[in-house]
């Protein structure tokens, strides 16, 4: 499998990133281990998580995903084979991007991950209460100390990202080299201002919500199908006229290509400049389906049809 360069980080990743939000939540530790084993057996190597995963779930408090990943890395001794991404800033006990919080959060994440370094450390959300200089200086210290290989920005708008990049250049601080926006066939807001900025600065892009919380898998026909789903709250807003039209095009395109809607959705993202999607799975069958997207090449007519339906 051909790996792709992740911006200017010096790291190379396979065409799909495993979203670790499910670990310790909808996939218990034993299931998570099986999924991670299969993921690397198939030649994939990048895992995305965050300290806050999965504090939103009943009975969980955050840190569960990192703990499961850390246990797997230690048991399988695969740390050198993995590009490991995690985040700081959204978890209530470690909220925000102050220097003190970043320092405390990275130590806690490293302990849970059972690693001496993080490959990509993301600011999980912009913190406008803290000067960008303070945040970037804190990240720079982690890079200089070898605890973090590169830094990234998630949930930044284009103006704040551009400002952060200017500050890093002016003050010779570590610079955001990877961007993690929400981006999928339904939500293409990334393309307006962030995409040109990412291309200008040669940022790697790893897209979350690549399947719109499962909407783009095509397994839900209507809002009524969401009853009992753990993701119902994320999904309800997608079932508007445009979303239903997009699903129809997705299903038709998938049928023509002997693929599934999820595979087509991920392959579409993989076809975008410098974009690698993040996707999650809770079963081996589901994971195998998603990984097969890396081998699916969409013909021009399919790309055109999806483009028209999603706009």
CATH superfamily of the domain at 4-180: NADP-dependent oxidoreductase domain
Strand composition percent: 5-15%
Order of helices and strands: EEEHEHEHEHEHEHEHHHEHH
Determine Rg (CA atoms, Å).
19 Å
CATH fold-level name of the domain at 4-180: TIM Barrel
Class based on secondary structure composition and strand pairing: alpha/beta
Distance between the termini: 31 Å
Please describe what this structure looks like.
The chain is 41% helix and 14% strand. It contains eleven helices and ten strands. It has an eight-stranded parallel barrel with strand order 3-4-5-6-7-8-9-10, surrounded by four helices. Strands 1-2 form a two-stranded antiparallel sheet. A hairpin with a 6-residue loop joins β1 and β2 (12-13). The chain is globular and about 50 Å long. The model has no long low-confidence stretch (mean pLDDT 95).
Please give the structural blueprint:
Layout: E1 4-5, E2 12-13, E3 17-19, H1 29-41, E4 46-48, H2 64-76, E5 83-88, H3 99-113, E6 118-123, H4 132-144, E7 148-154, H5 158-171, E8 176-180, H6 190-200, E9 204-207, H7 232-235, H8 241-256, H9 261-270, E10 275-279, H10 284-291, H11 300-310
Parallel strand pairs: 3-4, 3-10, 4-5, 5-6, 6-7, 7-8, 8-9, 9-10
Antiparallel strand pairs: 1-2
